[in-house]
Amino acid sequence: MVTNPYKILDIPETASDEEVKTAYRKLAKKYHPDKYVDSPLKDVADEKMKEINEAYDMIMDMRKNKNSQNQSSYGSSTGYGGASDPIFQRVRQLIMANSLDEADRMLDSMADSQKIAEWYFLKGMIASKKGWGEQAFQYIQRAVQMNPGNPEYTAAYQNIMRARQYGAGGAYNQPNQQYGCSCCDMCAGMMCADMCCNCCGGGC
Amino acid sequence: MFGYVTIYKDELLVREFNEYKSIYCGLCRTLGKEYSKLSRFILSYDCTFYALLLLSLNGECPGYEKKMCRCNPLKKCTYIKNGEDALSKASALSVVSVYFKIVDNISDSKGIKKLAYKFLKPIAKKWANKAKEKYPYIYNAVETMSKEQFKVESMDNAQLDMSADPTAKMLKSVLSYGEQDKSRKLILETMGYNLGRWIYLMDAADDLEEDREKNNYNPFLLMNYNGEQNFKNYISQILNQSLAQAYNAFELLDITLYKGIIDNILLKGLAQKQRAVLFSEEKNGNKSV
Questions:
Q1: Is the pTM of this model over 0.90?
Q2: Inter-chain CB proximity B244 and A162 less than 8 Å
Q3: B246 touching A, CB under 8 A?
């Protein structure tokens, strides 16, 4: 499937092993499945992830020598798992097949006593896939409150919280506060220092 | 339409800024050529972004040329040479959104303002009809949005996600229109949906004070919150969430042309506008474009 693995990682064939790894890590971060758990683009991202994994493995295989450490690549996550109730399993299948309205109807028809944490989680996933972020946040938050130990709910919740806190580009892209100002502060600092210097030393 | 989708000039390369400006000027020229001289006044950053994205998706560098500025005879501007298709679509989106905005404003305003909008309506209608002939998909998308929005706002308690849905869907269908590749289409749909949602919610956040005073509908006013600062922070989180979704989608597109400019807009320009609206941070000196 992979035609030219170097092209996929966007590096020349002469790249060193270290450069291959760096390029791979950069792309793996970009397409990381965790970023897309609650997104309609989950499959597209998974596909991209698979592509770069294959490219990376292929390059490493080609270059392999005796002492290869077989650096394993990030695995792509495999859908939802661990559903207990058959109704919830059916709902999960519907969500994966993108039949969101039908899945939603099935959940809505359930009795109040059946509305356990998983019910709220699945409601949240449906809202999220539709793009209704606020509703998704409320439901998934509720699911986590009801069952704080579930890794699936926690992962989805943390993903939303990251987005809400940092916005586009994640934590590494917090504009303004850090740069702009610190530069000015530096300038001001230098000016102060310069003035002191002139005062005391008399011209340095 | 609203002018929220702008660059963050301080962080743009000079080359990129010139490229952006030449698209902006190109759109101004196309508006004048296809509609009328008057229509140049509706030139917006939002529609410039649409043209920019179309050019970027197309992937061919349009080339640049220096010519006299159409608005100021003493100035020379750089225009993009080709890319008429992108500019023409963006002009159509401009005139169509302005027309529906005017229609909307006629029913919302009173007195002299209402009269002014009524006066402008036939002019805008003429433009919109022309755009409809050329790009029916744009006209239909905006018309549907306008109708759905009216329905949503007539409901007593339309919750936040629902209120943003019409604008989000409009941009979703406009951005993804005509894309043949299945995953690219899905990416553009997700990006469009969340960007449209962000624009609508930004507009709502911008009108918050006014709507509160006049007792108008505003999706944020239905939320209960303790203290103004907490409230603003919460709104900011909701907006962030949409931006992150839009950018995550954009990251899956493999485009190279104008990537730096689009990154700048999505990562910095929009965040800057958001802070300006919510926390009254000084508005970036974008006027000089």
A1: no
A2: yes
A3: yes
